[in-house]
Write a structure and sequence with these properties.
The complex is a heterodimer of chains A (about 120) and B (about 110). Chain A is mainly β and about 120 residues long. Chain A is built from no helices and 11 strands. In chain A, strands 2, 4, 5, 6, 9, 10 and 11 form a 7-stranded mixed beta sheet that branches. In chain A, a hairpin with a 5-residue loop joins strand 7 (about 65-70) and strand 8 (about 75-80). Chain B is mainly β and about 110 residues long. Chain B is built from no helices and 11 strands. In chain B, strands 2, 4, 5, 9, 10 and 11 form a 6-stranded mixed beta sheet that branches. Chain B has a 5-stranded antiparallel beta sheet with strand order 1-3-8-7-6, with no helix packed on it. The chains are: A mainly beta (about 120), B mainly beta (about 110).
């Protein structure tokens, strides 16, 4: 049973570029959440996708956008990269059951470095 | 004030010690509470949920005080393998979001 898979695992970009990160949720999960974790900080909620729509959004600018596909996989896009966008980007999946949405399974993350 | 606050540590303790981590949250509408563990350069993994009556899982005991908006994690008989960052996580019912604290780093030494 595959867990949450993310790609790429590491990438380096320069300021102003755009990046797309990908996530496949755990089998049986239908909800995908994205988090940004800067060094020494806890994960910060970016947004959550369910039924191919953005359900919730954290305090992130519009440069951060996403998408969920019919197979529940998801993408995170960041435009006009800034140095401060350097972080570990974590995808977490869950099942939108009565209480299941509270328990997340995380992927190993995509570590983005912006130069 | 941060939504979820933790002492960042690090807590350096010898093997066999008992160590306690505290966490406070600001949103009284918070409904569910968790402790996650994150190893260095790895993803967070659920350690345990925190129930109102308190709960125990082996050497780990979690407690919740809703009146004080306070959560704790107690680790008894610390092992070297317990070295990690422990993240306090709160589910806010009114915003339907999981909010993470910054984490408390634990280092257990021989």
């Amino acid at each position: 049973d595959a867990g949450v898979t993310q790609s790429p695992t590491h990438l380096i970009k320069t300021r102003g570029q755009q990046v797309t990160l990908r996530c496949s949720p755990k089998s049986g999960h239908d909800t995908v959440s994205w988090y940004q974790q800067a060094l020494g900080q806890g994960p910060q909620f970016i947004f959550q996708y369910y039924e191919e729509e953005e359900r919730q959004r954290g305090n992130f600018p519009d440069r951060f956008s996403g998408h969920q596909f019919p197979n529940y996989s998801s993408e995170l896009n960041v435009n006009a990269l800034l140095l401060g966008d350097s972080a570990l980007y974590l995808c977490a999946s869950s099942f939108q059951g009565p209480s299941g949405a509270n328990v997340l399974t995380f992927g190993a993350g995509s570590r983005l470095t912006v130069l | 004030r941060k939504e979820v606050e933790q002492d960042p540590g690090p807590f350096n303790v010898p093997e066999g010690a008992t160590v306690a981590f505290n966490c406070t949250y600001s949103n009284s509408a918070s409904q569910s509470f968790f402790w996650y563990r994150q190893d260095c350069r790895k993803e967070p993994k659920l350690l345990m949920s925190v129930y109102s009556s308190g709960n125990e899982d082996g050497r780990f005991t979690a407690q919740l005080n809703r009146a004080s908006q306070y959560i704790s994690l107690l680790i008894r008989d610390s092992k070297l393998s317990d070295s990690a960052t422990y993240l306090c996580v709160v589910y806010e019912y009114n915003t339907d979001k999981l909010i993470f604290g910054t984490g408390t780093r634990l280092q257990v030494f021989p």
